[in-house]
Amino acid sequence: MFPSGGGNMSARSNIFISYTEEDSKIANYIRDFIRNMNGQISIFIAEKSIFGSDKWRNAIIKALQESGIILPIITYRSIHSSWMIGETGYFWASEKPILPILENKKLLKQAPSFIRESHFIFLEDEDCLERIVTSIFEKLKLGTPPSESIAKYKTKYKILQNIIRSARGPADAVIEWNQALQNGNIAKAYSLTSKDALDYIKSRRDWGGTLEGLSEIYKSTVAGIEIEKNISITGNYAVVEYYCIYLDKPIGENKKLWTDVATREDGEWRILPQFAHEKLA
């Protein structure tokens, strides 16, 4: 049975959604989706839950204390957020349920260890919304969630994916471009490359004048990248700092700080590899 009396619900029925400002549309969509399943569940989102003369810090602390479960939304934009880590860490220390929601599986290895201990859900999975609701009802002991047709879930999933795409920033483009080269997904790499870079790519003899050639170099030398928080955006251009981890260098020397430049074209961030360079200490 569902708890009754929305304003007097027990704390165990309160949900705290932790997110970064860039992901507010994702957080709001997930909040609305949960509310549609059970309108009596109280959901705290800082953007719309703090009003009047309430001090935002006190309001967040009060919501953390009163909520029965936290949903940290973990993306490349929030992975280094001290607020999200702190809010989720409070639930972990209090031994209250944590339901991490990750944008994709590649983020898992970058998440804090206490978050990796939890059962998590990936937004790239088609059944993610169904699993979010099922997990919340189970952890808060709310019974069986209302049934939704598969068609409705698929429609809502597509809407969510469009929202996620609209939230993509320059750091996402840098990560996806580098991963595409590592995985040999040349079509994806070209789709993330600025049109203004094509002549530059053709001029790179060490790449064979193609991203295929650069991909072969990546496969043998690059283990992965880690995005730093240092991202500066000026108009349609952005500079992103990240660590490149090399396979062919000894431990201690295998992590180098690089910067990439991205430009916004047709509403999407794309990479300008001609401006990438290693940032020397």
Account of the protein in words:
There is one protein chain. By secondary structure, the protein is of the alpha/beta class. It contains eleven helices and ten strands. The strands form two sheets. Strands 2-1-3-4-5 form a five-stranded parallel sheet, sandwiched between helices. Strands 6, 7, 8, 9 and 10 form a five-stranded antiparallel sheet that branches. It starts with 13 loop residues before the first strand and ends with a strand. The model is unreliable at 1-12 (pLDDT under 50).
Helices and strands in order, then pairings?
Layout: E1 14-18, H1 24-37, E2 42-44, H2 46-49, H3 56-66, E3 69-74, H4 82-93, E4 101-102, H5 113-116, E5 121-122, H6 128-139, H7 150-167, H8 170-183, H9 186-191, H10 198-203, H11 211-221, E6 222-234, E7 237-246, E8 255-265, E9 268-271, E10 277-278
Parallel strand pairs: 1-2, 1-3, 3-4, 4-5
Antiparallel strand pairs: 6-7, 7-8, 8-9, 8-10
Helix pairs in contact: 1-7, 8-11
Helix share of residues? 25-40%
How many H/I helical runs? 11
**Overall mean confidence score, pLDDT:** 86
Read across the widest sheet, the strand sequence of neighbours is: 2-1-3-4-5
Regarding quaternary structure, what we see is single chain
For the sheet with most strands, the description reads: 5 strands, parallel
Strand content: 15-25%
Structural class, by secondary structure, is alpha/beta
Shape: elongated
Strands, total number: 10
Order of helices and strands: EHEHHEHEHEHHHHHHEEEEE
